[in-house]
Design a protein that fits this description.
Structural class: mainly alpha
CATH architecture of the largest domain: 3-Layer(aba) Sandwich
Number of domains: 2
Number of helices: 13
Bound molecules: adenosine-5'-tetraphosphate
Helix content: 40-55%
Distance between the termini: 29 Å
Shape: globular
Length: about 325
C-alpha cells in the first residue's frame, strides 16, 4: 500500500511563486509515488475575515491552479475542506487535548494576531484544525513550505498526546520540505517571507500575474550595493533571486555558481524574470483551458470529496470510540 500524503492551501489572496516552489511543485513531483490528498482549506481561510463571494470564487481558482500545475485528479484527490465535515469534528476532539500554551507559542499566530485589533478564537485554533486535516487521513507525509514546519511539529505533539491518553489512534506524520525553495522571501523585503496577505505591488509574483507585471516586480527586487554576485558573501535579496532561479530551473549548486558568479544584478534579475515567465506562461494557458471547461473543476471537487470522505469518517469513528464518545454499535 502506498503511504498517504496530505497538504493544502488557503483560498485567501493570490497564490504566488512561494506557494508554488514551497509546496505545489513538490506535490506534482510525488503524486505518482504516494496516495495524495490535496485540499483547499477554506475553513482555515475564514480564521480572518473573507468577503463571502470572493472566497467562493477563490476556492475554484485554487483548485484550477492545482490542476494547471499538473495535479492529476485521476491519481490524486483535489477536495475542499468544508465539503468533508469530519475536519471540523475531529478538530474539536483535538482541541480538547491541546493546551492553550502550545497554541500561543506559534510564530504564525503571534505574527497574525499582532496585526489584528481583536483576535478571533479561530486564529488561535488554526494549528489544531491543521492537525485535524492531516490526522483525519492518517497521512504519513506532509509536503509544505518551511513556514509550516512548526505547525507540523505541533501536529505530532497533539497526535502523541491523544495516542498516549486514549491509545494508538493516529499515524505520526513526517514533514517534507523541498531542498530548494522551502522559504521564498518577499522581493521588496527579503527579510520577510513572500506572503499572500502582503499586497504591496513589488512583494510577490502571483501565479496568475501577467508576464510584464512579473518582470517588473523581479527587476525592482531589493538587492544590495555590491557590484555583482559573490557566492561567498550573498546578501538576502540576491540569495532569494538565486533560489528562485534554481528552484525553477532545477540547476545544481555547481551550475548555479559557474553561471552566475560575478554577474551584475541587472543581468541576474533579467535571467530570473525569464525563467519565471517561461514557467508561468504555459501554466497560465493550462489554467485558462481548465477554467474554460464549464463545470469541470466543480466535478473534480465533488468526486474527490466523495472518494476521501469514507477515510475521514473511519478516523472520526475510531477517535470517538477511543474517547468514549457515543457511536452506533
Ligand atoms: N514564501 C513561501 N515560500 C515557500 N513556501 C511557502 N508557502 C507559503 N509561503 C511560502 C507554502 O505554501 C503552502 C500554502 O500556504 P497557505 O495557503 O497555508 O498559507 P501560508 O503558509 O500562510 O502562506 P501565505 O502565502 O503567507 O498566506 P497568508 O498570507 O494568507 O498567510 C504551505 O505549504 C506553505 O508552507
Amino acid at each position: 500500500m502506498r503511504a498517504r500524503v496530505f497538504s493544502g492551501m488557503q483560498p485567501s489572496g493570490n497564490l504566488h511563486i512561494g506557494n508554488y516552489l514551497g509546496a505545489l511543485k513538490n506535490w506534482v513531483r510525488i503524486q505518482q509515488e504516494y496516495e495524495c490528498i490535496f485540499c483547499i482549506v477554506d475553513l482555515h481561510a475564514v480564521t480572518v475575515y473573507q468577503e463571502p463571494a470572493a472566497l467562493r470564487a477563490k476556492i475554484e481558482e485554487i483548485a484550477g491552479l492545482y490542476l494547471a500545475a499538473g495535479i492529476d485528479p485521476q491519481v490524486s484527490a483535489v477536495m475542499v475542506q468544508s465539503a468533508v465535515p469530519e475536519h471540523a469534528e475531529l478538530a474539536w476532539m483535538l482541541t480538547c487535548v491541546t493546551p492553550v500554551g502550545w497554541l500561543e507559542r506559534m510564530t504564525q499566530y503571534k505574527a497574525k494576531a499582532a496585526k489584528q485589533e481583536s483576535v478571533g478564537d479561530g486564529l488561535l485554533q488554526y494549528p489544531v484544525l491543521m492537525a485535524a486535516d492531516i490526522l483525519l487521513y492518517q497521512a504519513a507525509i506532509v509536503p509544505v513550505g518551511d513556514d509550516q514546519a512548526q505547525h507540523l511539529e505541533l501536529t505530532r505533539d497533539i497526535a502523541q498526546r491523544f495516542n498516549s491518553l486514549y491509545g494508538e489512534t493516529f499515524v505520526m506524520p513526517a514533514t517534507s520540505l523541498p531542498s530548494v525553495g522551502a522559504r521564498i522571501m518577499g522581493l521588496d523585503d527579503p527579510q520577510v517571507k513572500m506572503s499572500k496577505s502582503e499586497t504591496g505591488a513589488g512583494h510577490a509574483v502571483g501565479l496568475l500575474d501577467p508576464p510584464d507585471k512579473a518582470r517588473k516586480a523581479i527587476m525592482r527586487a531589493t538587492t544590495d550595493s555590491a557590484p555583482g554576485v559573490d557566492f561567498d558573501n550573498l546578501g538576502p535579496g540576491v540569495a532569494n533571486l538565486l533560489t528562485i532561479y534554481q528552484a525553477f530551473s532545477g540547476w545544481t549548486d555547481d551550475q548555479m555558481r559557474k553561471h552566475f558568479a560575478g554577474m551584475r544584478y541587472g543581468d541576474l534579475k533579467k535571467q530570473v524574470a525569464d525563467v519565471v515567465i517561461a514557467h508561468l506562461e504555459p501554466f497560465q494557458k493550462r489554467y485558462r483551458e481548465i477554467m474554460g471547461e464549464r463545470g469541470y473543476v466543480a466535478r473534480v471537487l465533488a468526486e474527490s470529496a466523495f472518494r476521501v470522505r469514507p477515510l475521514a469518517a473511519a478516523t472520526v469513528e475510531l477517535a470517538k470510540r477511543r474517547m468514549g464518545l457515543y457511536t452506533a454499535e
